[in-house]
Amino acid sequence: PIAVVSKTTWVFFGPRRFESCRLRQMSKTKHFSAGGIVLKKIKNEYMILLVQHSKHKGWDFPKGHLNKGETSEQAAIREVGEETGVVGEILEKAGQTQYFFTQDGEKIFKTVNFFFMKFVEQKEATTAEEVMDEKWLSVEEVESQLTFKGTIEMWNKIKGKDYE
Fold first, then answer.
1. Looking at the DSSP assignment, which residues form a beta bridge with residue 3?
2. Other CB atoms within 10 Å distance of the CB of residue 114
3. 72 near 78, Cβ under 8 Å?
4. Is the N end or the C end of the chain the one with fewer CB atoms within 10 Å?
5. How many Cα atoms are found within 13 Å in the side-chain-facing hemisphere of 102?
6. 95 Cβ contact partners less than 8 Å away, ≥ 6 residues apart
């Protein structure tokens, strides 16, 4: 079906997409973040870095907010380094997640751009208090460890990528 919403005249195919986009219009505050899907080759197998957030306890790829004037790519590299100490090199954009969360009683719509990153070296994490745990997992293990539906859906679309 086609749905038309007044004021901005949005046209969408399918009820689920219309629903989520209509909700997006209701949120006045938007946040943008970026993160990395870090690949490290160990014994001819790619391992993927996941972190467990110390506040909400969920498992996800390392990510965080964009600083003023910063690109998504710059933020992804910085956030991965701050949270895990990993120095990474961006290979390409991997995907995007979008979701709502509430902060101080305000509903916020968040967009996170993720990038495939090649592990370069390990240094010291500078915001390690945000992360309570981290692990390197095989491609097959990642989905069962991820906490959030949107991240799992994105991962399932991109997990077959080959970087040989």
1. 12
2. 25
3. no
4. C
5. 3
6. 114, 154, 157, 158
